[in-house]
Amino acid sequence: MTTSANGNFVRKPFIAGNWKMNMDHVQGITLLQKLAWTLSDATHDYSRVEVAVFPPFTDLRGVQTLVQGDELGVAYGGQDLSQHDSGAYTGDVSGQFLNKLGCAYVLVGHSERRTIHNESDEVLNAKVKAAFRHEVTPVLCVGEGLEIRQAGTHVEHTLAQLRAGVAGLTAEQAAELVVAYEPVWAIGTGEVAGPEDAQEMCAAIRAELASLFDDAVAAKTRLLYGGSVKANNAAAIMAETDVDGLLVGGASLDAAEFANIVRFESHLVTD
Ligand SMILES: O=C[C@H](O)COP(=O)(O)O
Q1: Taking the model in full, what pTM does it have?
Q2: Does domain 14-268 have CATH number 3.40.50.720?
Q3: Subunit arrangement (predicted)?
């Protein structure tokens, strides 16, 4: 996370909670209410950070009602979308439905979609484009498994996923895109990539975006780290130059813990 001379963030920090397949629609509302209450203290300036939650599809209508009704400063999005707009695709959810529910974001290519549902780079590229078609910002997830990390080819592997995911995007879309680097071996395992590992990959992703598009695009694209993020390691990871945010799984299910991640550093403390 880089700050400019006046102390402002160059890219607005983005702290996202992926609830995965947890929290039914009643539990989801309760969690969001607790989070909103916890984030309503006057000692921090939350306008300096963007907070988003990614609940299951079945929670989205309730989340929309709560967020819009109470004007909570929390964005929300889907955990996946179809590459198609409508039609005979049983079980799939269109980006246009997410848009209509007020989703600002959608996760694309989370490692659990890539591995459990065998989603290919080609399909994920189509999903990224579908998200833009429906004016929902995609959060493209990339990252390597343990064997690839041990073989030392993690940067090459992750950049190949990135190139495939952004193929055919305009420069404007690439600048709006959010990319989440999630080393699969660090997801839900308690194994956290060190801040320097997160920085190494995020710097490589930013350099790749500069080469695929241009420096101005690369300077705007927000890059997140995900994998066993907790309140006690968030600040160190966020201190890295090219890390602009966090994609939090397990710890986002606890409102107090997630709120402490949102308040990762002293820049949010009001005078
Ligand atoms: O989307 C979130 C990531 O998969 C990280 O999950 P985790 O924080 O439970 O390791």
Answers
A1: 0.95
A2: no
A3: Homodimer.
